[in-house]
Amino acid sequence: xxxxxxxxxxxxxxxxxxxxxxxxxSLSAGKASQRAYQLQAxxxxxxxxxxxxxxxxxxLNHKRQGIAILEKTASDIATLNARAAAGAINPFSGSIxxxxxxxxxxxxxxxxxxVQNRRMLELEAQLLETGGxxxxxxYELAGRNARHQGYVNALNAGLDVxxxxxxxxxxxxxxxxxx
Length: 179
What we know:
mainly alpha
C-alpha cells in the first residue's frame, strides 16, 4: 500500500512533468503559429506582386491601344487628304477639312479614354501595393503576437508548477516555522 506522503509526492511529480510539458507545448505552439503567419505574409506579398504585374500588363495594353488609336487617326486623315488631293480638291478646306476634324476629334476622344484608363490602373497598382504591404505587416504582427502568447502561456504553466511545488512544500511542513 502506498502512503499518503508518497502519493502526494507522486502527484506533485505528475503535476511538475505535466506543467513543464504544457509550457514546452505552449512555446512550440506559439512558434508554429508565428511560422504559419510568416508564410501567410509571404503569400500576401507574392499575391500583391502578381496583382500589380497584372495591373501593369493592363496598363501597357491601354498604352498600346492609345498608340493604335493615334496611328489610325493619322492614317485616316492622311487617306482623306490623299483622296481629296487626287481628286483635285483642296484637302485643307471645306467639307474635307470638316471630315478631317471629325476624325481627329474621335481619335482624340478615344485616346483620352485610354489615358484615363491608364491613370486609373496606375492608381489601382499603387493601392494594391499599399494594401498588400499592410496585409503583410498584419500577418507579421499576428505572428509576433502568437509567439508572445506562447511565451505568456508557458510562463503561466511554469507559475502553476511553482504554485503546486509551493503548496506541496507547505503541506509537508516546509513553510516558515519562525512564526
